[in-house]
Amino acid sequence: MAPPCDDRPGRTVHETSCESEHLMKADHYDGFAESYSMDNESSLFNAYYERPAMIDLAGDVNGHRVLDAGCGSGPLSAALLAKGAIVTGFDSSPAMVKLARRRLAGNVALQVADLSQPLPFADGAFDDVVVSLVLHYLRDWTAPLAELRRVLQPGGRVILSVNHPIIYKLGYPNADYFAITEYSEEYTLNDGQSMALTYWHRPLHAMTDAFTKAGFRLSVISEPPASPDTPRELFPPHLGDRTAFLCFIFFVLEAS
After folding, report:
1. Is 103 helix (H, G, I), strand (E, B) or coil?
2. For 55, which DSSP code?
3. Which among 12, 199, 218, 234 could disulfide-bond with 44, CB atoms 3.0 to 4.6 Å apart, if both were Cys?
4. Helix (H) and strand (E) counts for the chain?
5. What domains can be seen in the chain, in order of their start residue?
């Protein structure tokens, strides 16, 4: 889960050593779960950009056992379910899981769990894992990626999205792109509620190195345009006629 990349009303940044500890709190989204979920349904960056890209990269999932890691209120789970997948989901936010249960009406097995901790699933339990805008909240990717590899069948896929690493450098020109750095940003949702989120920037090579060390083969790197169905009025005016912009980056990994 992540908010829009542009039109940010306020932001602050502070660098920390890679030695420091940072775990996403279990109730990270609880205070604004309902408001965020409502924005997620129709926003350019979620509904017309990130989610369609994830669905497209997932491809034919009919009959696949799919884990939605960090499922939020369940929009991606719902889309994969509609394509014939057998979906299981979890999120660290109890409020988000409650919203997902309301949306999915018992058709998806859902629970509260934390990707930074051991997952409550058997080895090789899934054919695919989708991880939508989650890993950028975590300083250390080693244990989460190892767990995703463990719960996948050999040859299974991880389809994931994270903040594009160049966004950090564009937003903070004096920052060190090559350092793994903690930073916080503030956002205002459509209903006027404010929220502050903390991310970990990492350069592209640090991402791909982590994938390889976890036993994955990098199959796809994608920087897609928005969906062709996107209403033109949702695009920022400075894009003109363009439908591609820097925001998130997408990967498909295959379990070796």
Report:
1. helix
2. H
3. 234
4. 8, 10
5. 10-234+243-255 (3.40.50.150)
